[in-house]
Amino acid sequence: MKKIVLSLCLILLGASVLSGCTKDEFLDQYNNIVQSAGSIALTGNSSLQGTKEKGIDDYTGTYTADYANFSGTEYLFGGTSIKREAGKELSIDCTLEITEGTAKVFWISGSDEAVTLIEATGTYSDTITLPDGGNYIGIECENFTGNIELNIE
C-alpha cells in the first residue's frame, strides 16, 4: 500500500512540475491521493453487517446494524487525510446493546493502540480531536448478538 501511494505521489509530483502547479495545489492533490488510499481500509458496504449512510466525507455518517452471532471487525468511518476540510473534531453518538458475546466500538489513530469508546450495553457521546494521519472508528465483535446505532458528525 505504501509503495502504491509513494508511486502515485511521484507521478503527481512529476505532473505538477511539468504543469506548473503551485505548492498548495500540489499539497491538495497529495492529500486527495492519501485520502483515497485511506478509504481502502474501510469495510466495504457489501461486507458490512448493517447499513451505512455516508456523511460529508468518509469520517462522518450513520451506521445501524443488528448482529446475530457475528465475529469480526468492521472499519466503519475514517481515513488518512493530512488536512481534513471539515476540521479535526468529530462528534460521536453511539448506542450499543449486547445480548450475547462481546462488542466494542473503538477509535484507532496511526500506530497507537486502539481506544475503546464503548464495550457494554449503553450509550456513548463525546467529541474527539483527530491527530494528523490515519484515524478509524470501528467495531470489534466476538460471537456478538445485539445492535448498534452510530452517528458521527
Automatic annotation (TrEMBL):
User: What are the boundaries of the signal sequence?
Assistant: 1-19
Ordered alphabetically, the record's keywords are: Signal
Q: What is this protein called?
A: Uncharacterized protein
Instruction: Please give the organism.
Output: Dysosmobacter segnis
